[in-house]
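User: My instructor asked us to take a sequence, write out its structure as tokens, and then describe one feature of it. I'm not sure where to start. Here is the sequence I was given:
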Amino acid sequence: MATALDKYADMKPTWDHPVVIESHINGIRTKEMNPNTPISYDEIADDAIRCWEAGAGAIHAHNTSFDLLGANAHKDYMRTWGKVLEKHPDITWYPTTCNNLRLLPDENGLEHVPLLYDDANVRIGCVDTGLTLFATEVDEEGYLSGPEFGFNYRRVASQVRMFRERELAMVFGVYEPGHLRHALHYVNNGLSTPGSMWDFYLIGDYGLTAMEPIGTNGMKPSLESLYYYLTMIESAAVQHPWYISIWGQGALDDTGILRRAIELGGHVKTGLELFYDPDRNPTNLELLQQCQEIAREVGRPIATHAEARALYNIR
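Assistant: Let's start with the prediction itself. The structure tokens for your sequence are:
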């Protein structure tokens, strides 16, 4: 019996827009995970500039501490982005959220975003619509440990309201299928913003932050996982663009998934925030160029900076 997934498995390559390839350059990765990970202000700035000049449609970066909130996070970001914006004042980039475990009850974790909107050309932001367990360690008896990350209904509502007030594009981070159902509420009720996008997380054995194969959350990197997410957005009231990001893949060859996403009209997020393989240490530029080469093989044009800005509804 045919299933809904078969439609995408049988679908011929089709797209209505050049492919946007973003570079996500650091996250909370460390030099121990990959010595090429940019950590210092200058390293983050230099990698952002390098990937932007190589054709990345947008840059996503963390500051030097996930624990900094509000004005302190803004100040820390500006130590990097002042340098970047001096060279490329029109660069498209966006920050991450803050450590949800440090928030006061009336805070939403994105208080730094309006400040960066005013000072640093930020017109996109992350909205992570759910709670997730990040496995990072396993003890001698096999028990897992790791942090909790994410935002409850009240904080997500506060984030969406803030984005709508400023007409900022929302990146709906879909770590799990339930996160997508949460975000669909806002999309289907006319509460998303123009330029918003889906980011389908496909999560390998190393998860989002682990250095050993103990990943326990998310849909595994596979074509079936991608097709399942695509069936979920078929009936969305607004057809926002969709992206994939493949996390902690280890030795898994993810090029077939990247190729299929590009063939089906999707866009790609790549970089060292996502990538982890204990046996490989690529640079952000190498990961960007790998995706660009796949797009060329598919025959799909790579979006220029202007075309990417148009997709994000940045005027």
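For the description part of your assignment, you could build on this observation: The longest strand covers residues 197-203. Try explaining in your own words what that tells you about the chain.
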